[in-house]
Amino acid sequence: MEESKSTDELAEMDVDVNVEADKYQLLPCLPWRYAIAIVGLFGFASGYAMRVNMSVAIVKMVSNQSSAPPSGHTCPRTNNDTTEYNPDGFDWDESVQGIVLSSFFWGYAITQFPAGRIAEVYGPRLVFFCGIFLSAIGSLLTPVCANTSFGLLIACRFIMGLGQAVLYPCYQVVVSNWAPPMEKSRMTILGTTGNTWGTIIGMPISGLLAGSSLGWESVFYFFGVSSIIWCIVWALLVYNYPDEHPRITQRERILIETKKHEYHTAMGGHPHHERPPVPWKAMFTSVPFLSSVFAAFCYSWGWYMLLTELPTYMNNILHFNIDQNALLSALPYLFMWIVSNIAAFSQDKLMKSEKLSKTAIRKVFSSTGLVFSGVFMVVASFAGCDHVTVVALLCVAVALVGLIASSLLTNYLDLAPNFAGSMMGVSNTVMTLAGILAPLVTGAIVTGNEDEEHWRIVFGMTAGIQAVGALVFIIFGSAEEQWWNRHPTREAWEAANKKETNTVERF
Q1: What are the C-alpha distances in Å from 59 to residues 297, 363, 454?
Q2: 8 A C-beta contact, residue 187 and residue 424
Q3: When you count CB atoms within 10 A of the terminal residue's CB, does the N or C end of the chain come out lower?
Q4: For residues 84 and 317, what is the distance between their CA atoms, to the nearest angstrom?
Q5: Lowest mean pLDDT: which of 155-169, 213-227, 268-282?
Q6: pTM for the complete prediction?
Q7: How far apart are CA 306 and CA 330, in angstroms?
Q8: 32-61 and 94-110 are packed helices; what angle lies between their axes, rounded to 10 degrees?
Q9: Which of 133, 131, 128, 161 is nearest to 54 (CA)?
């Protein structure tokens, strides 16, 4: 309690002395921590737009020989359907297209693991910048590589994956450095839902550009240039820590640092800017952490299957033209963004009310999203050729994924905030395996069988995987802080528990 009093006195002194610094706010009534989260949102949006644009552009890149009569049933073509044989396109069947779509994730899997720790030790500012910049260069080079050789295209997508792998682990560190304890969930969601906006904006723009006279090449040039512009904004506005930022108000800096200091002191934390060594053995033997990673893999299978294959399904089965296809493919992600933000706010309110435990809240939201998004995917695959019904069901399926994103992906900050970046790096490495496997498995199932029956197998398998993930998280998951977050041994944790006070309840 004495430590808390001293930090309050320090905060009062600093605010009095530096009150003139308030004029350096970026915008009136917008704290710098939320300005940084908004810049992060646009960073995720840029990254995801570069990730999903291939899913749309590839429809125009290929020769469309696969649109020949299928072995089973597809929807009848409409007058709006412009799919036709493209003699200048690449002769890629569905399995080869699966390789192209999954190659991004080969690189994405490699740098996840070290990125979190590098950001924890050296700060996330430069690491996040380099990730987007490298991906932007890869996007600009994609048309040249694709027209030169298939191998160069795969290498280019691989390099883009290397760059974007740092985004989630780095942003976990941004939140850890900048968010007061009770604002972590909302700052996490505010930034990371940029991936949804990247999908919402990226798919329609990609469809319009690919279907225009500019050709599919313009898709990659547009997003490459816009991402470089974002890099400039990030470099000018974002810093690793509040006390490094030259334009932050002193009132906000004191708010962040004193609340974090009091919280970490009460929790037996570490001094400002000091990062303890990662307890790898304890982490990899933690059942709650491993169950969260497994559930995240199952969630990612459904997420990446929809993200990479939904435009192909709408083109080859429902026979939408490329412009309509891209717009309708993006529509479900708008609903996902709405649901994820409502879910994040609802979870914060429930935790504050203490009507349910934090663990119960995370399990309810995550399992509901995993199970019922799979159910609506399966129902959509049996909805026939009623375009309105199919799109509506897919909107519900993807929207329910927002329940998972706002709970399961925040779970690492619950378990061990001191190592959130490293944990997210490990988790995203495993999640990336789903990004690699889902397009390959989908391609293997539907190659030569481009019909409703085989796509039902794809959707049904996805629903089953998500249901297993929900079951594992319900049984083994937790949102309680793990002993290795702030103690070197379990014995030290048990001893500290005997002396713990109720100071932390204020936060």
Answers
A1: 27, 38, 19
A2: no
A3: N
A4: 14
A5: 268-282
A6: 0.70
A7: 10
A8: 150
A9: 161
